């Protein structure tokens, strides 16, 4: 096989590159990788691109590309499609942090308190993960997930 992966970049459509940059920096801890910026002379107009990285606890980084290819945010969070997932050690603390920052978190859990947002899955082999959905300023779907181990 000649395919040798070096890095994965998840491209997200945004309507305002600088507004999205602020969200990803201030809320999720990403930093800009200036090497891959396409700013159209600093205007960040259509087809502009900004690549951002967030360090991972186990080494490496998570990379996103903010691409200006929409003029307004999506009307609502998509019901399906590709959803970047951020794995954390403490989902409840992360949930509270995002809520305190005013991030739109989807109430999909059906319970009260944290359970209003947090959903669980169990794999065929008995591994449990907890997760919740939230949105960036353009209503791109994102997930916070905590792997809980085997039941």
Rounded mean pLDDT score: 90
Report the sheet with the most strands, covering strand number, pairing sense and barrel closure. Answer: 4 strands, mixed
Strand order across the largest sheet = 1-4-3-2
User: Using only CA atoms, what is the Rg?
Assistant: 17 Å
| Extended strand count | 8
| Helix/sheet category | alpha/beta
The number of helical segments is 2
Task: Give the low-confidence spans.
Answer: none
Tell me the strand percentage band.
Answer: 25-35%
Give the topology, please.
Layout: E1 9-14, H1 17-26, E2 31-32, E3 49-55, E4 61-68, E5 85-87, H2 91-100, E6 119-122, E7 127-135, E8 141-150
Parallel strand pairs: 1-4, 5-8
Antiparallel strand pairs: 2-3, 3-4, 6-7, 7-8
Short account of what is shown:
The chain has 151 residues and is of the alpha/beta class.
Walk me through this protein's architecture:
13% of the residues lie in helices and 32% in strands. It has 2 helices and 8 strands. A hairpin with a 5-residue loop joins strand 7 and strand 8.
Annotation keywords:
alpha/beta; 4-stranded mixed beta sheet; single chain; 151 residues
């Amino acid at each position: 096989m000649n395919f040798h992966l070096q890095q994965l970049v998840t491209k997200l459509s945004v309507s305002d590159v600088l507004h999205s940059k602020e969200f990803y920096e201030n809320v999720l801890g990403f930093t800009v990788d200036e090497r891959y910026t396409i700013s159209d002379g600093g205007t960040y107009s259509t087809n502009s691109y900004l690549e951002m990285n967030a360090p991972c606890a186990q080494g490496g980084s998570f990379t996103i590309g903010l691409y200006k290819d929409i003029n307004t945010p999506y009307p609502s969070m998509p019901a399906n499609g590709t959803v970047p997932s951020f794995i954390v050690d403490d989902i409840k603390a992360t949930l509270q942090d995002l809520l305190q920052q005013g991030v739109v978190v989807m109430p999909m859990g059906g319970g009260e308190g944290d359970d209003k947002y947090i959903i669980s899955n169990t794999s065929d082999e008995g591994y449990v993960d907890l997760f919740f959905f939230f949105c960036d300023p353009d209503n791109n779907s994102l997930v916070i997930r905590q792997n809980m181990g085997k039941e």
